[in-house]
């Protein structure tokens, strides 16, 4: 896990209203991409924030919204969300990955 301070330019969000979607409840949402780098820039920042790319327009130039810096980490390398256990495990965060056991008598030639 990591914690960070991030600043976002709200003017750029307003200027790019096509990037804002509205839910069925009328709530406004923006899909953002956040990149955390292993090194800092000249301003001691290692995080950048931009609008997520439109899948229908992959050649579109990125719209940068802000940046920030990490101020705390537990030292572990974050995993991709698709690699994390789901919330349906009743909050058990100590799940061991399942490892296939190799049977010696599997009758395979290799």
How would you portray this structure in words?
The structure is a single chain. The chain is mostly beta strands. It has a domain at 2-70. It contains one helix and six strands. The protein has one helix at residues 10-15, and strands at 2-8, 20-22, 28-30, 32-36, 47-51, 64-73. The strands form two sheets. The chain has a four-stranded antiparallel sheet. Strands 2-3 form a two-stranded antiparallel sheet. It is extended and about 65 Å long. The relative contact order is 0.21. Mean pLDDT is 82; it is low at 91-101.
Q: Keywords for this structure?
A:
mainly beta, 110 residues, 1 helix, two-stranded antiparallel sheet, four-stranded antiparallel β-sheet
| Order of adjacent strands in the largest pleated sheet | 1-6-5-4
- Looking at how many chains there are and whether they match, the oligomeric state comes to single chain
Number of helical elements: 1
Tell me the series of helices and strands, N- to C-terminal: EHEEEEE
List unreliable stretches of 5+ residues: 91-101
The first-to-last residue Cα distance is: 41 Å
What's the overall geometry? Answer: extended
């Amino acid at each position: 896990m990591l914690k960070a301070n991030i600043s976002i330019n709200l003017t750029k969000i307003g200027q790019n209203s096509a990037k804002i979607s509205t839910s069925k409840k009328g709530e406004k949402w923006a899909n953002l991409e956040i990149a955390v780098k292993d090194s800092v820039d000249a301003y001691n920042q290692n995080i950048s924030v931009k609008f997520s790319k439109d899948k229908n327009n992959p050649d579109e130039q990125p719209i940068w919204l802000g940046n920030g810096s990490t101020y705390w980490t537990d030292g572990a390398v974050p995993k991709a969300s698709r690699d994390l256990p789901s919330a349906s495990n009743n909050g058990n965060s100590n799940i061991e990955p399942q490892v296939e056991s190799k049977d010696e008598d599997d009758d395979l030639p290799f």
